[in-house]
Amino acid sequence: MQLVSDAEIPEPPLFTAAHTWQDTPEQNVTQAKPGLSPAERVQRALGCIPDLPDPSSSSSSSSGFRRWTIRDFARAYGSGEITPVMVARRFLAALEECSGPGLNMAMFISCNPEDIIRQAEESTRRYQQGAALSGMDGVLVAVKDEIDCLPYQTTGGTRWLGKARPCVCDAACVAQLRACGAVLAGKTNMHELGAGTSGINPHHGSTRNPYDTGRVSGGSSGGSAAAVCAGLCPVALGADGGGSVRMPAALCGVVGFKPTVGRLSNSGLLPLNWTVGMPGILAATVEDALVAYAAMVDQSRPSHSQPKLNLPLLTTTRSMPNIRLARSAKWFDDSSEDIRVCCDKALQILRAQYGWETVEVTVPEVEEMRLAHYVTMGSECSASVATYVEKLNKSEIGWDVRIALSAYGSFSSRAYLNSQRIRRRQMYFHEEIFETADAIVTPMTAVTAYPLQDDALSTGELDYINAAALARYSIAGNFLGLPAITVTAGYDKAGLPVGIQFIGRPWSEATLLHLAYAMQEACSKDCRKPVVHYDLLNKEEY
Predict the structure, then answer these.
(1) φ, ψ (nearest 5 deg) of residue 454
(2) What is the superkingdom listed in this entry's lineage (predicted)?
């Protein structure tokens, strides 16, 4: 930490990552007017998406495994062939099976079957009356247990926080999804207090990776990533303070999307790291990420002061010319050989199929930025939970989190102030890069999912080597408040997913969704089915 605390840094500190609105032109978008309801924004987003494949085609056809999407569920509900109640019952049966001793996937902390069926019955009646609220009506959405969602308490992955901080109303993003008719499917598991990257939780079980149940799901939003990967829902909510949405998304082979800081409301999110954390989206496909994003965008501010909302016309992604992707070779290549080869191949595919150019740049002081983010995140987490933790018996906290909190509490005020000075320096460095490129491209993680160690399941795990490798590329999105998205680019030699990441300039979510969609479509023929997967629209499985 001396690299941060002892440095003489001339820049003044920058205490938040908030960005003023800049009307940067984006290609191939449509603008959603201020004042639209969440349901109206969902319908606008659905109009930006290419037509669905023929419904008679199998989800695991010769063209590659295909996950069911929001539109698949909406189409099935609209036809009357399947109802939200039927899907909810299948979800509950699947969850019971995968939570049992045979698989022990530990994806959910709490789930209320009666509440889920009640929501599904209300949605079914709306479809029967021809009055569905939106294209998300009846669609299952899981919620990370760091985000308030009635009727559940918000535990933050602990045994005690739900009692100390009662949940009295939905978080803003949850309320917007509920207004669209989504069926909130329970609270997903997470690394305790978000203080780790593995998803190993000694209190609620360690979430397993559906591609290999002997490996980690990633964290801290591992339960949400695994639930989407396993087909239990097409969308889940996470929270991202240091890659906590994007890292598990990459390890589990799904889409992870963190918009610009301020684009989604933090109301109802545990304030574990308030200047770097925000809600994020885990989704089966880029199209699902777009629809959920449209529903959740915070438009509560006066129209003259809120940023414009561009939605990407994914029907026209292939016609986008002159996209330039910035690649910092030393940083990009600091990963396993499988990941490096896979991501380089992905860039070659984008160039061949879309004509998009990769330009070499240097991202200065990456290690300094990583340490500054760690000091910031840890200091804020320590301050956030201090009044609760001082009253606790330490045995109520996992060993790994006890050590993490002890480290966080040791950071000096000088280290925190210098970290904010480094934030300002990095803002300048990234602004310079975005003068010449539309997005920065990196692998999402430097390693794929690593094995779960049995002796860590009851204590938690401190594996700084793998933790650093997982978080290597995630920091700029949080520390600088930039939008970032990860999508699967391929698989390693063991068949585990490899994620590629696009980091954009502030407010360029539409461009990032275009890039991720292009990557998804380019790799769709190689999409592989997880070992643990449930087909909630297939009547033959139930």
Answers:
(1) -55, -35
(2) Eukaryota
d(CA 238, CA 236): 7
> Residue 459: which residues within 8 A CB-CB, separation 6 or more?
202, 398, 399, 400
Beta strands in 60-172 (DSSP E): 60-61, 64-65, 108-110, 140-144
Task: Give dist(CA 518, CA 513) in Å, integer.
Answer: 9
Give yes or no: 61 in active site.
no
Residues belonging to the chain: 542
pLDDT by residue, tens only, the chain of 542 residues: 677 888 899 999 999 999 988 887 899 999 999 899 999 999 999 999 999 776 554 444 445 799 999 999 999 999 999 999 999 999 999 999 999 999 999 999 999 999 999 999 999 999 999 999 999 999 999 999 999 999 999 999 999 999 999 999 999 999 999 999 999 999 999 999 999 999 999 999 999 999 999 999 999 999 999 999 999 999 999 999 999 999 999 999 999 999 999 999 999 999 999 999 999 999 999 999 999 999 999 998 777 777 899 999 999 999 998 899 999 999 999 999 999 999 999 999 999 999 999 999 999 999 999 999 999 999 999 999 999 999 999 899 999 999 999 999 999 999 999 999 999 999 999 999 999 999 999 999 999 999 999 988 988 888 889 999 999 999 999 999 999 999 999 999 999 999 999 999 999 999 999 999 999 999 988 999 999 999 999 866 65
Q: Which of 123, 134, 144, 198 is catalytic?
A: 144
Active site residue 220: yes
The angle that helices 399-409 and 366-389 make with each other, rounded to 10 degrees, is 110
Q: What is the distance between the alpha carbons of residues 289 and 292, in angstroms, rounded to a whole number? A: 5
In angstroms, the CA 314 to CA 477 distance is 23
The active-site residue out of 206, 244, 265, 419 is 244
Q: Is 1 helix (H, G, I), strand (E, B) or coil?
A: coil
Known catalytic residue at 33: no
* Selected catalytic residue, list 110, 198, 206, 220: 220
- The rounded distance, in Å, linking the Cα atoms of 240 and 242 is 6
Q: What's the CA gap between 404 and 439, in Å, rounded?
A: 33
Say if residue 497 is preceded by a cis peptide, omega within 30 of 0.
Answer: no
Task: Give the integer Cα–Cα distance in Å for 77 and 79.
Answer: 5
| 220 upstream amide cis, omega within 30 of 0 | yes
- Helices 286-296 and 70-79: crossing angle in degrees, nearest 10, is 80
Phi, psi (5° rounding) for residue 340?
-60, -45
* Exposure string over 120-154, b if 16+ CB within 10 A, otherwise e: bebbbebbeeeebbbbbbbbbbbbbbbbbbbebbb
